[in-house]
């Protein structure tokens, strides 16, 4: 594996691993008191693509696809398993090499081109990462390069540090209850798993599921570090996958465009968030991560 690519400004330091799924390996912010704080859980050396750290793009779908199979346009799609479990996870972009398409001060564009394999739809996707004066901005732009419609979904998979006092605040309407294989079984009110308080106590909550009806805004607070992080996602990223493994020292709040196993659920319902891109059509979305000091 090649050395990480660095981006740095007065307030931010970022390490990227284009060959390891276009992944952000580390992201730090300089607190007003001079300390450098990890906004993303940093990956360790040697870099391991299976480590629960960093932040990687999800394409052409997020989370799990039941047994890697679904039917679209009368054709059965079968993708090979890419994790130890029985289902295909996170698409394939996170396990493929990306290339550097452009680079400038505080900005880099990573690109992935998919010619078609078990996923038979050719497409291209770019990930533009920018360090702005007060925030990190990540844009995903996907283009259907094929001659037929393509089902599609995308998002980001950040691992955030978790301290004993960490909280996650977000406005969500509903939640997907899941079975022992973390596959969706039913949709219910978000309060059933989130609880009645707006701030979720990460350390005392065990979740691994998708919340729907998200307004695109979330706030993380690390009181031990005197810092917080505001995350804002543009449409169609209106699902929030929350993963809070107890005692792990990290958690996930993933802005994504659709629910788990959406390609299969879309055969029976119209609220999964799946997009069907016509030939030549594009789908673009972005997230911004804005750190702040707690008063």
TrEMBL record:
One of its GO terms (molecular function) is aldose 1-epimerase activity. Its EC number is 5.1.3.3. It holds the Pfam family Aldose_epim. It comes from Kaistia defluvii. SUPFAM superfamilies: Galactose mutarotase-like (SSF74650). It is an enzyme of class 5 (isomerase). It comes from the Bacteria. Keywords: Isomerase. This is Aldose 1-epimerase. InterPro entries: Aldose_1/G6P_1-epimerase, Gal_mutarotase_sf_dom, GH-type_carb-bd.
């Amino acid at each position: 594996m090649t050395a990480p690519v660095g981006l740095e400004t007065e307030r931010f330091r970022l390490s990227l691993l284009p060959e390891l799924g276009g992944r952000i390996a580390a992201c730090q912010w300089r607190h007003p008191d001079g300390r450098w704080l990890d906004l993303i859980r940093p990956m360790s050396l040697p870099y391991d693509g299976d480590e629960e750290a960093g932040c990687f793009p999800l394409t052409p779908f997020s989370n799990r696809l039941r047994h890697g199979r679904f039917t679209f346009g009368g054709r059965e799609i079968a993708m090979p398993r890419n994790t130890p479990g029985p289902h295909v996870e996170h698409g394939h972009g996170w396990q493929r090499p990306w290339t550097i398409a452009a680079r400038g001060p505080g900005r880099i564009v990573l690109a992935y081109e998919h010619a078609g394999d078990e996923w038979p739809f050719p497409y291209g996707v770019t990930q533009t990462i920018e360090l702005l004066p007060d925030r990190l901005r990540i844009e995903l732009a996907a283009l259907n390069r094929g001659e037929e419609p393509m089902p599609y979904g995308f998002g980001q998979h950040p691992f955030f540090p978790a301290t004993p006092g960490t909280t996650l605040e977000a406005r969500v309407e509903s939640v997907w209850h899941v079975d022992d294989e973390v596959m969706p079984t039913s949709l219910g009110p978000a309060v059933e798993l989130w609880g009645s308080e707006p701030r979720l106590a990460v350390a005392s909550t065990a979740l691994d599921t998708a919340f729907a009806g998200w307004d695109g805004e979330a706030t993380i607070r690390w009181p031990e570090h005197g810092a917080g992080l505001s995350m804002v996602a543009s449409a169609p990223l209106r699902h929030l996958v929350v993963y809070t493994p107890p005692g792990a020292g990290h958690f996930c709040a993933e802005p994504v465009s659709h629910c788990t196993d959406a390609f299969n659920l879309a055969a029976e319902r119209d609220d999964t968030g799946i997009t069907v891109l016509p030939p030549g059509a594009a789908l673009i979305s972005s997230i911004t991560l804005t750190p702040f000091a707690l008063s």
